[in-house]
Amino acid sequence: MNVYRFLCSSDTSWAGFVARVFAGIVLFVHGAQKLLGVFGGMGASETVKFFVEVMNLSWLLAWLVIIIEFFGALALILGFFARIWAILITVLFLGIIITVQGEHGFFMNWMGNQKGEGVEYSLLLIGLCVVVMITDGGKYRVLKLIK
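Above: the chain sequence. Below: its structure as tokens.
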């Protein structure tokens, strides 16, 4: 199969569109917190500092998290290479589950009863991204408009 055709092929389902847009909106808020410091976030410099000093990530991985969450979310919303961004987001959140959330169980920490967040949010986001990978985001994609 032609790589371009794989990356740009899409069905025209509403399911792909809904999965792409909602995953993008939810993730965009988290990315904007990290990059811009809005919605109660720390902004890029403090986020990178936290990832490096507290989470023991390299500065490169810290920036990749920020880029994937912010620009990947925008790309999903627009349907711009949605399949690629969905794969990157899935890999990111599998890493989050393995390194941070797995030890805290399934549920998010709504009541403050746990030491951290469970995998619930990450699994939902991964599920939406799998739909995007299958459909490449369905209807109303930017790449479909410029082809």
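Residues 37 and 43 are 4 Å apart (CA to CA).
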